[in-house]
Amino acid sequence: MRTICLYFEIHQIIHLKRYRFFDIGKDHYYYDDFVNESSINEVAERSYIPALNTLIEMVRNSDNTFKVALSVSGVALEQLEIHAPAVIDLLHQLNDTGCCEFLAEPYSHGLSSLINEECFKEEVVRQSQKIKQLFGKAPKVFRNSSLIYSDDIGAVVASMGFKGMLTEGAKYILGWKSPHYMYHCNQAPSLKLLLRDFKLSDDISLRFSNSEWSEYPLFADKYINWIDALPQDEQIVNVFMELSALGMSQPLSSNILEFLKALPGCAKAKGINFSTPTEIVSKLKSVSQLDVPYPISWVDEERDISPWLGNVLQREAFNKLYSIAERVYLCNDRRIKQDWDYLQASNNFRFMTTKNTGLPVYRGIYDSAYDAFTNYMNILGDFITRVNALYPEDMDNEELNSLLTTIRNQGEELSELHKELDRLRSKKAAGKKKGANTEIIE
């Protein structure tokens, strides 16, 4: 039976304030609180709240046959808990239906997977723990920031125990292959790959309300007919997008939510169901390995990492930030750790892009790529000074590596202790269940 894997991403930009060169060393707070609060409240009211209510309604109206996947960056969860707790409540309600799967991703929604494996792993573990704490289940499937993927990244993700990973069905990677099959990482066959159908995804997230689009207006039955018309052996259709597309990119006045509500009924009439990523990677077999020697993403026509690292300014800022990654890793200062998360967020580098995509570039408070670079580097200069005050730049490498090794060993020991504790709890619970069954038989 053909299945649709519907996935939404939730991330919130942390807006930096205007920070001058003369603020370095004097002002250690980098954020525009007013803009951050007002922007998250706006997206919550216009998108997240109505969209999540719709998803909950869809599950209930379908007798729990409609299923959906979500991922929420750690940074977004922090902001939602502070400024929009109603969204967290709705996420709990959706989770309680049993028809929603939460995925893992980097805590900061950053690009650490491209430069620092230890930093990347730490972020993913931290976000996974927060998801488990909030929603009761540890994620089994991973999605990277902006679906960034390569063979090397896949191998790291597999080493962390994930069963599957979401990425882009980029044409120049697939060639003649279809995104409607399941593939696996060429360096780690245990990691299954679900590839985004960018056309069917963008038809909803980018084109739905465009009156000049040749398929406008798009109705649910037409959309499902497109899926039903695919070759019979193409069984997986992955529709991935940002949740903010529902209400922000595509206004509620376009009837985008009514379109969404009609999808399960139209799909059922054609014998098409909905599945979560874990269900798919657990039930279906991979048809082939996927070779991705260079990173791909779901952004821009090139589907690569040029939106963040395509020019000299971006690469200079990026390399400067991660030059102190080991020192931040050693640090226990809560403020520095939080600033590190916010400064890693990919949008900071996106604001510095000089790519000509033919579309307007959103730069927040900045007038140009150079303006974004200058402001970010001023902040980064102050941040690096604070980090070096704790762990000096001239600190002996041997001493630094010794500290890092000690911390990693302690972390591994704690992890083993937690696993042993879980085994003992499971054994104890099984013993109680067995005892209860014996009493019933007697």
Walk me through what this model shows.
- This protein is α/β, with parallel strands linked by helices and 442 residues long.
- Helix 1 packs parallel to helix 3, helix 2 crosses helix 3 and helix 8 packs across helix 9.
- The C terminus is likely disordered.
- The strands form two sheets. Strands 1, 2, 3, 8 and 9 form a five-stranded parallel β-sheet that branches.
Task: Briefly characterize the structure.
It contains 17 helices and 10 strands.
Keywords:
442 residues, alpha/beta, five-stranded mixed β-sheet, 17 helices, 10 strands, 51% helix, globular, disordered C terminus
Describe the global form.
globular
Strand residue percentage: 5-15%
Number of helices: 17
Question: Low-confidence runs (pLDDT<50, min 5 residues)?
Answer: 438-442
Mean residue pLDDT: 91
Number of strands: 10
Radius of gyration (CA) equals: 23 Å
Instruction: Quickly give the structural class.
Output: alpha/beta
Helix proportion range = 40-55%
Largest sheet: 5 strands, parallel
End-to-end CA span: 45 Å
- The ordered string of helix (H) and strand (E) elements is EHEHHEHEHEHEEHHEHEHEHHHHHHH
